[in-house]
Amino acid sequence: MSLIGRLIAYAGMGLAITTAAGITAVLIAEKAVPPDFRKKVLCAAGLVDLAGTTCLSEQMADHQQKLDQEMAQLRQQNDAKVQSANDARDLAVQSLAGNMRFDEGPSVAGMTIVVGTSYKDHAARTGLIRSICWGTRDRGGLDPRVTLAQMGPDGIPVQASVDTFGMSVLGVDLSDIEAARAECPWPSVS
After folding, report:
1. Which residue blocks in the chain are alpha helix, DSSP H?
2. pTM for this prediction
């Protein structure tokens, strides 16, 4: 027998012995390792189909727990948004419910200058919500007015646009409007 033939024979015998040892090791391991361990290893490896229904149930429970946590976070965020919207609505309702404080300024070009202010605490005049400055003229029951400017909680007045119709109803011109804006009796913001 040639050298190559002997090498092939030895290789074949080595392969047969290795295969027999592997099969023996698997059979021994199968008997020594509890069946749940095999299923847990398959489940941990992501082989749910081979691991069985227990693995699928556990994964579904894990996913449900994560979904429940996400839903709880979304509910908290939503509750905070709803509370913020309710607070804004309550402030708007307060300011529209006749809870406005009025301060009268001087007369400019026949107009009376008035500022109406809504506060969070009307009695203490604190927590300014909004102030509006108007120019108005007494016309025997029909008192036309135009909004001259508005001021928010930041205390910065912002001019309102006054059109030519509004000026003609009051009988004033643009320079009168500018002079009236300068006399708005704005509340102090603290």
Report:
1. 3-32, 35-44, 48-51, 53-96, 164-170, 174-181
2. 0.49
